[in-house]
Amino acid sequence: MHHISRRGMLAGAAAVALGRRAIAQGAPIKIGLMLPFSGTFAALGENIAAAFELCLAERGDRLGGRAVTLVRLDDESDPAKAPQNVNRLLERDKVDVLIGTVHSGVVMALVQAARERDVPLIIPNAGNVAATRELCAPSIFRSSFSNWQPAYGMGKALAAKGVKKACWVTWDYAAGKESGEGFRDGLRSGGGELIQVLTLPFPETNFQPILAQLPGLGVEAVGSFFAGGGAVQFVKDYAAAGLREKLPLCGSGFLTEGVLKPQGAAADGIQTALHYGDGLDNAKNTAFRAAFKQKTGRDADVYAVQGYDAGQMIAIGLDATKGDATAVKPLATAIQAAKIDSPRGTFTLSPSHNPVQTIYLREAKGGENRVIGVAADALADPGTGCKMNLP
Amino acid sequence: MQLAGLFAQVLNGLQYGLLLFLISSGLTLIFGVMRVINLAHGSLFMIGAYLAYALAGITGSLWLALPAAVAGGALFGAALEYTLFRRFREREHLDQVLLTFALILLFEEARSALVDNQFHSVAIPAMLDFSVRVTADFAYSAYRIAVLGICLGVAALMFIGVERTRVGSAIRAAAENAEMVDLLGIDARRLHTLVFAVGTALAMLAGALAAPLQSVYPGMGDGFLIISFVVVVIGGLGSIAGAFWAALLIGLIDTLGQAYVPQAAGTAIYVLMAAVLLFRPAGLFAKG
Question: Which of B120, B217, B263 to mutate to test the interface with A (most CBs of A within 10 A)?
Fold first, then answer.
C-alpha cells in the first residue's frame, strides 16, 4: 500500500522526481545477487556470479553512469528461507536490482517481491514457466530458459528425424512436468506424438520398474528430464538395461550437462537439446570463454553464459534510464527492444520477457556436449497466461 | 513380448524385495527381541551407503566396502546398544521414538557436515560392469544379479543362524516370551547387544550394496524406513521367515504396481498393511 501511494506522488510531482534522479546518480547502484553459494547448486551459483562480475568489469563496473555495489546473499537453495532472504536484500541492504536464482522454488519469492515492489529482477537460471507466464510482470526478465524450451527443441528434432511415437521419463515435479509438455508440443509440431509420461517421486532413483516397461510401449525413442546425480544414475541404468540400441535416449540438455564425467561411456551418443553447447563457433563465445577462464580458472558453462547475459540485460536497462532502477517501464522497454549479443548467439526477448533463442541439438561424445545442429530456431516460450501491458 | 516384460518386472520386484529383506530383517529382530522401535534404522542404511561411497572413493573399488559395512555396522550397532538403547529398553515407546528420531537428525547433520548435501554416484566394480540379457529386449547389469545372489546368501545365513543354532533359538524365544528367556538363565543383555549389532550390520550392508544402484543422497533411507516397517508388520514382529516372505511380497506388489497400475502403486502396500493389521494382527506369515 505504502509504495503505491509514494509512486503516485512521484508521478504527480516532477520536482521530487528530479531530486531523486540527482541523488540516484551520485550514490552507487546496489545490485543484490541472491544465488546458491553453498549446497547442491553452489557451483552453479558461483559460475553465474563470476560471469555477472565479468560483464560488469567489461563496463568499468559502472551501469547507467553509476558505480555499482554488489551484495551477495547465499540462498542455500532453501525455499523456506527465501522470503526472508529477499526481504534482507530489499530492507536491510536496500538493493535497487535483484539477480537470482537457480532453484525453482526459491525464485518464486523473488518473483513475488519483484511484482509487489516493482523492483527489476533478472532470473539467471530457474526455468519454471510461471515466471514468464501467469506471473509475468514488467519488472521480471529471464536470461536463461523456460523448462518448456529445451524439451520442445528435442521433441521437434526427434519428429524431424521421423520419430512418430515417443515417451517421456522424469521425476514427478514441476520441472519434469513442464519440460514434458514442451517435448509433447515439439513432437506435435513435426507430426509426432507423446504417448506416455512415466514418472517416479523426486528424488528417488529406483528406475528399474520404469526401464523394464519401455520396450513394451511401442515407442521409437525415449525422452527424459533428469539433472545432477539423478541424471547420472538414470543414464547409467538405461545403458545397463541394454535399451540404447533399440530405443535411443534423448532429453532436455540437463540430462548430460556437467555430469558427463561420472556418466562415462553410458552417455556416449545421447542427443540433448539446450540453448548452449560445446564447440559453438562465434567470436563472442570464444572471447567470453577465454575471459571467464582467465578470471576463474574454470571452463565456462551454460550457467556462466546465463549470468553474463543477466549482466548485459540489466546494463542495457540501466543505461536507458541513466541508472534509475525505479523507472521500471523505460528500463523494461529498453531490454525488451534489445538484441542481446550472447555467447550462445544473439537473442531477443519475448513479450513475456523470456529469451527468444536458438535451441541447439547436441550429442554427447568424449566428455563433451558437441553442438551438431539446430533443434529449434528463434524459439519463444508461448507465454500462456501472461497479461502484461507494455507500451 | 508382454510376457517378457512381466518377467523383467518380476525380476525387478524380487531384487528390490531381497534388498528390503536385508534392511527389515534387522528391524524385525530388534523390534521382536528388544521391543524397541528404531526409527533410525533407515539412517543406518544411509550410513552404509555413504561408507561405500567414501571407501570406493579412497580405494577405487567397492569390494572393501562390503566387509567394512558388516564389521563397522556390527561394532557401531553394539556401541549404540551399549550406550543408548540399553537404557531405553524399559522406557515408554514415546521415549524410544524421541531418542531414535533425535538419532535421525544427528546422523543427517553428521552426513551433511562430513560429506555434503549433493547426489553422488558410486561406480559399479569393474569386474561386474557389464550386462546380461534377461529377455529379448531387456538386460540386467551383472552387479544387480550379484546383489540378488548376495542377498539370497545372507538370507540363507540368517535362516540357519536363527532356526538352527542355540543363539538363534534364544533369539526366537526372546521374541516370543522375554521373561521366559530370563528365567532360563540366558544373559538377555548380551543377546540384545548381539541382535542390535547384527541388525545394524545388515542395514549398513544393504546400504553399501545399494549405493551403486541408487547413488547416495540426503534422506535416501527415509523411504526404506517406512517400507521396512510395513514389511515388519506384514511379516509379524520378530519373525525372520515372515520378514523374508513379506519383503518379497512388498517388492513384487510395489514394482508390478508401478508398472501396471501406476495410479494405485503408492497406496497398494499400505492397504495391504491395514488389512493385515485388521484381520491378522500377528502378521500374515505368523504360525497359527
Answer: B217
